[in-house]
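Protocol check, entry for the methods section draft. Step 1: assemble the input record (protein sequence plus ligand SMILES). Step 2: submit for complex structure prediction. Step 3: store the structure tokens unaltered in the notebook. Ligand used here: nicotinamide-adenine-dinucleotide. Step 1 record:
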Amino acid sequence: MGSVSVFSIAARRLEGKVALITGGASGIGEHTARLFSKHGAKVVIADIHDNLAQSVCKDVDPKSASFVHCNVTKETEVENAVNTTVAKYGKLDIMFNNAGIVGGAKLNVLDVEKGRV
Ligand SMILES: NC(=O)c1ccc[n+]([C@@H]2O[C@H](COP(=O)([O-])OP(=O)(O)OC[C@H]3O[C@@H](n4cnc5c(N)ncnc54)[C@H](O)[C@@H]3O)[C@@H](O)[C@H]2O)c1
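Step 3, stored output:
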């Protein structure tokens, strides 16, 4: 009995958490969305591929996964993704900035220009 409850806690490490995942329609982001959902998180997938993202949400669990269109090169769309998440779930605990980096990595966020992924 004791070991079962310990396992249950370990298996749902993100219970009650809300996560926003950019580029969550495929690859690393999709697998992260599936794993976070399995661990009990509410997941919002932010991506440019609407149909793909919606089908991932449907497959993961429409009760815990949802989609918002977001091109991360557009600051207003990122702002909208955050606002949509907070409006839907009342908070944002985890922001996984997974979608795209092209070119040399910038170690300091202040060196990153708008519109670059
Ligand atoms: N796969 C690797 O080996 C690897 C290695 C190092 C870094 N990365 C980085 O990790 C991230 C994810 O890699 P992946 O292999 O899962 O890529 P992927 O191509 O499988 O998935 C990327 C996702 O991001 C979405 N996307 C692309 N441009 C977007 C934009 N402007 N706004 C919002 N969503 C956008 C795509 O629609 C797709 O769903 C990328 O930033 C990649 O550069 C990947």
